[in-house]
Design brief:
Strand order of the largest sheet: 8-7-9-6-1-16
Distance between the termini: 17 Å
Bound molecules: ligand 2P0
Shape: globular
Strand content: 15-25%
Length: 328
């Protein structure tokens, strides 16, 4: 196919578009070891969601940065702070950043994970920084620790052994697993994760025990994944989720992210499992319930969650890949 010549206005302008997917942690990250470098105090392990995505385009411009999120120009402190950090290390001109999610933003669906991963990937592509995937994961972590895992895709682990860059443990097709996400509220959360986990560190009496438990949980999850033992993975994932929420609930002031739909979702998933369905739940810093299931059981899981109290949307997704540049 014949390539169109660039117009005079756009010739030579550096730009790139990237896509990244959010991820759901099965062993949760909640707490920082070093806030200055955004290094977690806990290892974490996640799966990447295929059909949910963030698409981000960056274009070099004259003047100042111009940030558009979901079609509206915003002053986004997290993105602005991250651009400042990158500029301390790389020669990056003023940028127009246009980012959009095909799912609710800042409501416990990990939009900052896919957002930061897409931003790093697009900047690396547009500015030809030639960073490796590992280096991009480390930079994405500085923006939002969970974003390091979205860089890797599939089943991903983020821990100290790789210098706090995430590594892919399994590719998306290596294990036939789906995730049914029941969105029980589209509201933005009142306390963000960064602020919430710092409050937990300062005030929850369970915090130190939580840190210890994450190391054991990560080892148990790695063994379960190596053996493709779905029941064992579910058992450790539910325990990690509930322990994290125990820390949240015992934070002062308390962080209560659940609503009635979340609680009823847990009850239904447990009841379904009693009937032999391969499913477990997990919940992040928001009320959405995420049911992880063997792909053959997806229809039953969806049917069980379809009429949860207050349910707004249901997303059914397989496992997704890491962040990549796409044609702009
Ligand atoms: C996780 N969360 O492991 C946990 C579970 C929320 C609950 O990672 O401060 O937005 O930007 O590093 O990455 C959310 O934390 O926090 C998160 P920062 P981030 O998925």
């Amino acid at each position: 196919m014949k390539q169109e010549a660039p117009s005079k206005a756009t010739a030579g302008v550096r730009r790139a578009t990237a896509v990244a997917h959010p991820n759901v942690a099965l062993v949760k990250y909640w707490g920082k070891g070093c806030a200055a470098t955004n290094t977690p105090a806990t290892p974490s392990l996640s799966i990447t969601l295929d059909t949910l995505k963030t698409t981000t385009t960056v274009v070099e411009v004259r003047g100042t940065d111009h940030i558009v999120v979901n079609g509206r120009q915003v002053a986004d402190a997290k993105i602005e702070g991250f651009l400042r950090l990158l500029r301390e290390n790389f020669d990056i001109p003023p940028l127009a950043v246009d980012t959009s999610n095909n799912f609710p933003t800042a409501s416990g669906l990990a939009s900052s994970a896919s957002g930061m991963a897409a931003l790093v990937t697009a900047i690396n592509g547009a500015m030809r920084l030639d960073l490796t995937l590992e280096e991009q994961s480390r930079w994405a972590r500085r923006g939002s620790a969970s974003a390091a895992r979205s860089m890797a895709g599939g089943f991903a682990i983020l821990d100290a052994r790789n210098g706090w860059a995430a590594e892919q443990l399994l590719a998306p097709d290596d294990w036939a697993i789906n995730v049914v996400v029941a969105v029980t509220s589209r509201e933005r959360k009142t306390v963000g994760s960064t602020e919430g986990m710092e409050l937990s560190r300062q005030t929850s009496p369970f915090y130190e025990a939580w840190l210890d438990s994450t190391v054991r949980d990560c080892d148990a999850a790695l063994t379960a994944i190596a053996h493709r033992d779905f029941a064992a993975l579910g058992s450790v994932a539910e325990a990690s989720c509930l322990r994290m929420h125990a820390v949240m609930l015992t934070t002062d002031p308390p962080l209560v992210y659940w609503n009635a739909g979340t609680m009823e979702g847990i009850r239904r998933i447990r009841a379904l499992r009693e009937t032999g369905v391969g499913v477990f739940f997990t919940i992040d810093a928001g009320p959405q319930i995420k049911a992880v299931c063997l792909s053959g059981d997806t229809g039953k899981v969806r049917a069980a969650l379809d009429d949860l109290p207050g349910v707004r949307d249901i997303h059914v997704t397989g496992l997704g890949s890491g962040a990549t540049c796409v044609p702009s």
